[in-house]
Each structure stands twice: as structure tokens, then as C-alpha cells.
């Protein structure tokens, strides 16, 4: 894939508090990239409008696997932005080989927020921000819970 994006837009169910939205079991495999800004992304805060409010609820993400993803990037190799209330869990990475293009671009390190899973093989670059395992169940939910 050259200078294109694989983009999944997911809409949750609305108007029914008994339903929750979840993405489970997504596989990205055997992808060759060339000069892609952000090759590996999970963004629970994504907004396709010019004005969006930052919401604390998000679509739950579980069981997303990236394997054999190779190529070059222009900005940042990995961007995982998950919700404090609904962290991303069981994110699996293996066979990741992403190299920056020439130094004419400003490069950023991989970014992970509230993203939990496993590195099943060494990655290039190292994706040290992924939290290994699962999130704690007894998380602080607000400033009122802090002593």
C-alpha cells in the first residue's frame, strides 16, 4: 500500500443505555507501507468534524492484532490513544518493521495511552509504551476517588 490509509469508521449504538459499543478481533496483517504519516493507529478520541468535544466514553477496543507490518513513515510509527474509562486491551504486535523516511521530516516516538497487550516479537522501532498485560480493575475513576 503506497500513500493510502486503511481506515475503519465505527459508529456506536445510540439511544439505548443497555447496549454498549465494542470492537473485538480485528487483524491487520501482511501490509507494506511507503511514506505513511501514522501507519499503526487506534484513536478512541477521533473526530471527523471541525468541532468535537472530548468525551470520556468511547467504543471499547479489544483483540486488535497488527502483524507483519513493514515500510516507512513520515511522522510517527504508532499512535494508540485509548480512553481512561475504556482502555484498549489485548493489542497484539508482531513482525513490525517501520523505518522513518529521510530526515527531512520531524519524527516522533511511538505513543501509547491506556493501551494494554503483548509484544509477540521485537519491533522496529521499539514500541516500549505498550503496557504488557491487562489494566487493573480497581482504577481511580475521578479526582473524588483520590485521598
Automatic annotation (TrEMBL):
Q: Name one GO molecular function term.
A: hydrolase activity, acting on glycosyl bonds
Q: Where in the cell is it found?
A: Secreted, Cell wall
Q: Which InterPro entries match?
A: Glyco_hydro_28 (IPR000743), Pectin_lyas_fold (IPR012334), Pectin_lyase_fold/virulence (IPR011050)
Family from the record:
Belongs to the glycosyl hydrolase 28 family.
GO annotation (BP), single: cell wall organization
Q: What is its main location?
A: secreted
User: Which UniProt keywords are present, listed alphabetically?
Assistant: Cell wall, Cell wall biogenesis/degradation, Glycosidase, Hydrolase, Secreted
Q: Is Hydrolase a UniProt keyword of this protein?
A: yes
Q: What's the source species for this entry? A: Eruca vesicaria subsp. sativa
This chain's protein is named: Polygalacturonase
What the entry lists under Pfam families is as follows: Glyco_hydro_28
Origin: domain of life:
Eukaryota
